[in-house]
Predict the 3D structure of the following.
Amino acid sequence: MKQWIAIAGTAVLMILSVPAGAWVTDSAPELLPTPLVRQAIDQDPYVVEARRALAAAGHGAAALRSGSHEWTTRAIVQSRRYDAGGRSNEWEAGLERALRIGGKARLDGDIGEVEIAIAQAKLGEAIHESARALADLWMDVIAARRLKEVIGEQRGFAQESLKAVESRRKAGDASLLDVNLATTDLVEMDRQLSAAGTAEAKAQAKLNSRFPLITELPKLTVDPRPLETGQAQWRERILAESDPIRIAEGQARKAALSADRMRADRTPDPTVGVFVASEARRSERIYGVSVSIPLAGTYRNERMLQALQEAEAARARLDGKRREMEMEVAETYIAAMGSFERWRLTSQGLSATQSSARLTQRAYSLGEVDLQGLLLARKQGLDATMAAEQARIEALRAQGRLMIDAHFVWGLEED
């Protein structure tokens, strides 16, 4: 049962059924409406966090554009005593500010814009991951519910078997051992049904905990279809829509700009000010302009070298992220192709196996087969049904993951 729940599938599917080179514009009937899904995703705490981070990045960019230099006021009060006698109360007041030179203001503005772009990409990734989580949690409930239905059907067969055994026992055509075997089989079905009910409740609780708006869950009626579009096109689409790659690109761009900023910072910013002073018993009034320039040293040079190495590391990280995403797309595509083939193969013999189980059930009631044959046929029917359902959900999961990663569902292409 745990294995059944673990392979529970994915979200709304838009199944491809066109030749390679053309993308599908139609979709399978949506199992969850897009407005409801987007509302649920927008309320996901991880998405809310990403939106707040985006707003914070906007304020950070504004701060970078304005610069960290602020106006500074300066005041000096002093008393001068003369050897000839007497004292002079004097004062000085000034206003000064450092000025960004060497294109530093432009670089700061560019860094702020890149930080906004990174925050937007992180928001897109948060929405994407939330959609994945919603799909998985939702399908966990669907799978658990289907498992419960299948076991419920088998319990009904077990109950019919017990009634038939008891009837044949009364007629002297069945042994007490047969009655005990049929009773044990029914008890086992009750146990599995109880466990399936618990699994369904747990899956529902997980879904409601993270996405409380998703309450109505329709049955999963769609079947997987073969993927006609080639792997190369899937890779191109998913990489083009990949928010992790956008994040890595933004971080590489920011690192390069930061290195340029540290290079420009080797030329220190001058501080320019104006001042006025009163001296010599108020008989002298002084007006002036002040300029101060820090002397660049080893610290600024080392920070520049550090930023250059960080920019190289960011470019390498971007290359690694692209390769990682390509590998992920290939694995998902291969999984979708393989799981569809497994579903096709298991589905071929399902009807025959289920029909044999029903016929054996009837034959036992007529005394044409023994109980062991009946239990074996029912077990084979149950195993075939479970295998077909598992393969179906595996295929839908893999195909749905492709659709979600390619941003073909729930309006993800707009993020």
Q: What stands out?
A: The longest strand covers residues 87-98. The CA atoms of residues 242 and 375 lie 51 Å apart. Residues 2-69+102-266+326-414 form a domain with the Outer membrane efflux proteins (OEP) fold (CATH 1.20.1600.10).
